[in-house]
Prior knowledge:
Blueprint: H1 16-19, H2 27-31, E1 38-41, H3 47-55, E2 66-69, E3 73-79, H4 86-94, H5 98-108, E4 124-133, E5 151-155, E6 169-172, E7 179-183, E8 190-194
Antiparallel strand pairs: 1-8, 2-3, 3-4, 5-8, 6-7
Amino acid sequence: xxxxxxxxxxxxxxxxxxxxxxxxxxxxxxxxxxxxxxxxxxxxxxxxxxxxxxxxxxxxxxxxxxxxxxxxxxxxxxxxxxxxxxxxxxxxxxxxxxxxxxxxxxxxxxxxxxxxxxxxxxxxxxxxxxxxxxxxxxxxxxxxxxxxxxxxxxxxxxxxxxxxxxxxxxxxxxxxxxxxxxxxxxxxxxxxxxxxx
Length: 197
């Protein structure tokens, strides 16, 4: 059984009553994690919705796509959810819904979270072979909403990932001098972390 069950695969919705109290059981683990508040949750969502994401993954650029080929990030493309198939677009929108926001608030202890309707830095991201994203601190001020960006959430879609591929997410100490934890990007693994720690 997945941590959050998707009850309607056509729209990517979960049952609000079942999600309402989710996250409370993870709050201590999240809030006391080192080197800063974060959590890794395996088997996070119903795998069928992630299979739909793979089936409907963009075949090419959309009007808001961004491709990066520079020293800090190479061979990396982001895709805006507004241009996805209806079922996957609806799933992305459900991740911005009140039940999911309440799950994040319960887990992180951060109250008054707001979803990002612009998906700034959000949506599908793809890094192809040989690509990378170097050590960095995420942006803190939303460029359009002018509010503090508090959390980042990743859900991996990689199937049959092997450690020798590299590509692990590295969590570094606050001085950005040493890697403290590595997280392999395996299918249906979720990582949530605070961006203002």
